[in-house]
Here is the input.
Amino acid sequence: MSPEAKSFHLSEPIHEYLLAHGGAPDAIGQALIEETRELGGISIMQIAPEQGAFMQLLAGAMGARRAIEVGTFTGFSALCLARGMGEGSRLICCDTSEEWTRVGQPFWEKAGVADRIDLRIGPGIETLRAIEDDQSFDLAFIDADKPSYIAYAEELLRLVRPGGLILVDNVLWFGAVVDADNNKDSTLAIRAFNDWATAHPRCENVMLPIGDGLTLIRVR
Here is the structure.
């Protein structure tokens, strides 16, 4: 397991207990986590294992068949979503780094989900804008550059069907969202997104204290 809980509000014993009772990755998922850790401090960009388990279960429970992920990193979130969606599904993964996404691809193969994943390298906003306005996607996940969160979400509102879900990561930003002395660009962007999602008439949302904060938006 991770040497420290990414869920900043959890003690390490509680985090380990949580994983032991639902949420621990299997051997393939854990191997991907370990390989990502070898990248050093940047590995913090990977979602927490309990968040991956939640997203996998959610994708399966809602019967998602088409999904979009903005920000793939080394592919753990894509692995979880693709597993939850099942055979014959399609997950479009948007990322700018061939180096990072290359880490996860062998693990997608080992898990038997590589044929469900359509990896598109390039600016995420351009990838989204190139997708036709058909509102046929069931699920989306945003975990990319924070200043673009609102732009990504606006594009996804035209692509995700009414009743579908948009999941958004890092919405608590390790507590910085309530730190009045923290006015860094990414912090301001997260606050702006949280306010935008709360006020938008097409967003029915709930913020969960899982990982670094995960917002679920149900598209109206």
